[in-house]
Amino acid sequence: MASLDAIDRNILRLLRLDARMNNVKIAEEVGLSPSACMRRIRIMEDSNVIRGYTVLADTASIESTIAVIINITLERQTEEHLDRFEAAVQKHPEIRECFLMTGGSDYLLRVEVANAGEFERIHKEILSTLPGVLRIHSSFSIRNVLATRIKSRR
């Protein structure tokens, strides 16, 4: 897809605020007809600018989970090592997020666990077997202060 114009960026902004906003409302907000707006959204979906839609749930109220933030340092930062690591991470649904980082570590991962025993299993069976890992540094969250900046529907 070519670079995004101001209208595309505005559509993305609106969808980030409320992914359930209907197309007619989005079109009205950005000054397009509903069909033109839907065409732009579909193009962004087809080109993976929009990779999907999701629900942000308060996992603490649904289930007792602990977010674990994991810093990973690789043995080498070559393209081959980065690609192998990223391909391996994508095979494990336990890993909720993975970011390539600058600074002290190469990657930041987020997993959610019910308890320390579950994290020990993930550490032993997944994290320590990922290709090229030199160092793993994990931190357990105390509580989530801010998950997103979307407006509340209440």
Shape: globular
**Physical arrangement of strands within the biggest beta sheet:** 2-3-1-4
Rg over CA atoms, rounded to whole Å, is 19 Å
What is the fold named in CATH at topology level of the largest domain? Alpha-Beta Plaits
State the total count of DSSP E strands. 4
The share of residues in helices is 25-40%
Report the top-level CATH class of the largest domain.
Answer: Alpha Beta
Distance between the termini: 37 Å
Sequence of secondary-structure elements: HHHHEHEEHE
Number of helices: 6
Number of domains: 2
Class per helix and strand makeup? alpha+beta
Using the 3D structure, state the CATH architecture of the largest domain.
Answer: 2-Layer Sandwich
For the sheet with most strands, the description reads: 4 strands, antiparallel
Q: Enumerate the spans where pLDDT stays under 50 for 5 or more consecutive residues.
A: none
State which percent range the strand residues make up: 15-25%
* pLDDT averaged residue by residue: 89
The name of the CATH superfamily of the largest domain reads: Lrp/AsnC effector binding domain/regulation of amino acid metabolism (RAM) domain
